UniProtKB/TrEMBL annotation:
The keyword Flavoprotein applies. It is found in: Mitochondrion. The lineage of its organism: Eukaryota, Metazoa, Chordata, Craniata, Vertebrata. Pfam families: Pyr_redox_2 (PF07992). The gene is SQOR. GO terms for molecular function: FAD binding; glutathione-dependent sulfide quinone oxidoreductase activity; quinone binding; sulfide:quinone oxidoreductase activity. Catalyzes the oxidation of hydrogen sulfide with the help of a quinone, such as ubiquinone-10, giving rise to thiosulfate and ultimately to sulfane (molecular sulfur) atoms. Requires an additional electron acceptor; can use sulfite, sulfide or cyanide (in vitro). It is believed the in vivo electron acceptor is glutathione. Residues 32-149 form the FAD/NAD(P)-binding domain. Keywords: FAD, Flavoprotein, Mitochondrion, Oxidoreductase, Quinone, Transit peptide. Its cofactor is FAD. The keyword Ribonucleoprotein does not apply. Signal peptide: none annotated. This is Sulfide:quinone oxidoreductase, mitochondrial.
Length: 438
């Protein structure tokens, strides 16, 4: 409720909260034809689509949060280009009308009995299950965090609690090292850890402090970006702007009182290096949802085990999944959620008719690589790491138009298209833009 109050204060005109959906803590045994776990990007999107398919009264969403955040805009919040208030809306205003909102946390999934248990002990049974639980952030896996965020000069765009600290650290920068990290785990939006470096560089240039700054990107990866076409462009930018890139450097400790960050060299086990910092941006280690990990739905690592084309579970045919919680071998993004939602709707509609799923997800995902306060490289690619660009021009070039897309068009598309189940990714437009050739 405190978060909701904060959001209302941030939106002085208030936000219209729909009263048409039914929300309650799960209190008695309940049954739903279509049960959705998680009310983030994938969960709300699929509940909108399932409402159209099976009727609102047959759909329920289990989600504990009062506020739903549009996380991609946090990149711009951390750089002072958007407010944190603009990133959140009350979950109640986004839940499709008539759909049951179970305001609880899922504690356990039992696909053998088609039931889910919530943290207040309620058992909900289902006919079909859509898992959209996202992933977990693990700041605590870095020694000295999260308590280090209590000190100045350190922030992280990956959490609503710490994103404004990034902007504060950037504004307070005087002279020294600005250090940006990428962890040794899969992450959501793999471009975000370096986007904030480009924005910080631009900000320090604008404010005349760049000459006193060493910009350092320490990444666990052996590459700057996973797709060569875009990595080549990014390497040109880092050379031109004098940004230092250290590959295979993994953050293991933050000594926030001394403004020191400790990295291990992943190519030389046991070797560590201490970087003093004037500003530190942390991208935390991430991992699968503990609820999925502890269930028979998990693969050997803990991700939801799906057929990568149909998004149906590999062992339980009445279970489906979408988004960051899955083991789909593509980059974890909201753009991927959009493309997956169109395929998954089709898969489920076929299964309901006892037919074979016929639409295949090609791994489409996208990352708007923000390279300044008015330029973006729009990376779009598939399972094979092949560029799958929507526009009929080279998207590896920095463009103003793409910044406008990221900052203004995409949020609109998210709130009014994706979450209402009306946006399934740019596939159809790509065909038109390329005159039917792609
Ligand atoms: C800084 C940043 C920048 C990003 N930039 C981009 C970008 O430019 N482009 C892009 O496409 N994507 C971007 N993303 C990624 C994008 O936000 C995610 O990939 C997307 O939100 C994934 O959707 P999801 O539904 O899988 O997970 P989420 O949207 O995270 O939703 C998961 C939901 O599950 C709920 N949940 C968790 N555990 C439980 C439980 N036990 N019981 C019930 N509910 C639970 C959570 O409360 C949450 O609401 C960015 C993300 C960040 C953090």
């Amino acid at each position: 409720m405190a978060a909701l109050r904060h959001l209302k204060q941030c939106h002085p005109r208030g936000i219209a909260i729909s009263n048409f959906h039914t929300s309650s803590p799960a209190s008695a045994k309940q049954h739903y034809k279509m049960l959705v776990l998680g009310g983030g990007s994938g969960g709300i999107t699929m509940s909108s689509r399932m409402k159209r398919l099976v009727g609102a009264e047959n759909v329920a969403v289990v989600e504990p949060s009062e506020i739903h955040y549009y996380q991609p805009i946090w990149t711009l919040v951390g750089a002072g280009a958007k407010t944190v208030a603009s990133s959140g809306r009350p979950t109640a205003s986004l839940m499709p009308s008539g759909v049951k909102w179970v305001k609880s946390k899922v504690q356990e999934i039992n696909p053998e009995t088609n039931t889910v248990r919530t943290d207040d002990g309620t058992v909900i049974s289902y006919e079909y299950l859509i898992v959209a639980l996202g992933l977990e952030l693990h700041y605590e896996k870095i020694k000295g965090l999260p308590e280090g965020f209590g000190h100045p000069k350190i922030g992280s765009n990956y959490s609503v609690q710490t994103v404004e600290k990034t902007w504060k650290a950037l504004q307070d920068f005087k002279e020294g090292n600005a250090v940006f990290t990428f962890p040794n785990t899969p992450v959501k939006c793999a471009g975000a850890p370096q986007k904030i470096m480009y924005l910080s560089d631009a900000y320090l240039r604008k404010t005349g402090k760049r000459a006193k700054a060493n910009m350092i990107y320490n990444t666990s990866l052996p590459v700057l970006f996973g797709i060569k076409k875009y990595a080549d462009s990014l390497w040109e930018i880092v050379k031109k702007r004098d940004l230092q890139i250290n590959l295979r450097h993994n953050l293991i400790e933050v000594r926030a009182d001394k403004q020191e960050a400790v990295f291990e060299n992943l190519d030389k086990p046991g070797e560590t290096k201490v970087f003093e910092y004037e500003m530190l941006h942390v991208t935390p280690p991430m991992g699968p949802s503990s609820v999925i990990k502890g269930s028979p739905l998990a693969d050997e690592i803990g991700w939801l085990d799906l057929n990568k084309e149909t998004l149906q579970h590999t062992k339980y045919p009445n279970v489906f999944g979408i988004g960051d919680c899955t083991n789909l071998p593509t980059a974890k993004t909201g753009a991927a959620v959009a493309a997956q939602s169109a395929v998954l709707s089709r898969t489920i509609s076929k299964i309901l008719k006892k037919e074979k799923p016929d639409k295949k997800y090609d791994g489409y995902t996208s990352c708007p690589l923000v390279t300044s306060y008015n330029t973006v490289i729009l990376a779009e690619f598939d399972y094979n790491g092949q560029p799958l660009e929507t526009f009929p021009f080279n998207q590896a070039k920095e463009r103003r138009l793409m910044y406008h897309m990221k900052a203004d068009v995409m949020p609109h598309l998210y709130w009014h298209g994706l979450l209402r189940g009306l946006w399934g990714g740019p596939g159809p437009y790509r065909k038109i833009m390329h005159l039917g050739m792609k």
